[in-house]
């Protein structure tokens, strides 16, 4: 699973704790969401807890484990660093374009 998918899933689990609401938020199918959640559970980043949805059905809600919280922090830091580098590169490209434009 790519880091972007992992980060987005970890970010939204705390506010969208069911598979259906998480799938809607991420724009994934239920099948892909199930696959992603299973992978995160297997890595120990997320745990599933049963809860009563109605009088005759049980559902699961998903919760970050302490390891999942650390992973989310690490992925967020890397994401921010990538965006800073992209920003610096774009700023430099813009300066070069402005210099070239001023020289014409």
Number of helices: 4
Tell me the name of the CATH homologous superfamily: Winged helix-like DNA-binding domain superfamily/Winged helix DNA-binding domain
Low confidence ranges: none
β-strand amount: 5-15%
* String of helices and strands: HHHEEH
Number of strands: 2
Shape: elongated
InterPro entries: MarR_EPS (IPR026433), WH-like_DNA-bd_sf (IPR036388), WH_DNA-bd_sf (IPR036390)
Pfam family, one: HTH_24
Coiled coil: 73-100
Keywords: Coiled coil
In short:
By secondary structure, this protein is an alpha+beta fold. It has four helices and two strands; from the N terminus they run αααββα.
Distinctive features:
104 residues, alpha+beta, Arc Repressor Mutant, subunit A, two-stranded antiparallel sheet, 2 strands, elongated, AsnC family transcriptional regulator, WH_DNA-bd_sf, coiled coil
How is this fold's topology laid out?
Layout (H helix, E strand, L loop, with lengths): L2 H11 L5 H8 L3 H13 L3 E7 L5 E7 L1 H38 L1
Antiparallel strand pairs: 1-2
Helix pairs in contact: 1-4, 2-3
Write up what this structure looks like.
This is AsnC family transcriptional regulator. With 104 residues, the protein is α+β, with helices and mostly antiparallel strands. It contains 4 helices and 2 strands; from the N terminus they run αααββα. The protein has helices spanning 3-13, 19-26, 30-42, 66-103; strands at 46-52, 58-64. A hairpin with a 5-residue loop joins β1 (46-52) and β2. α1 packs across α4 and α2 crosses α3 (30-42). The termini are far apart.
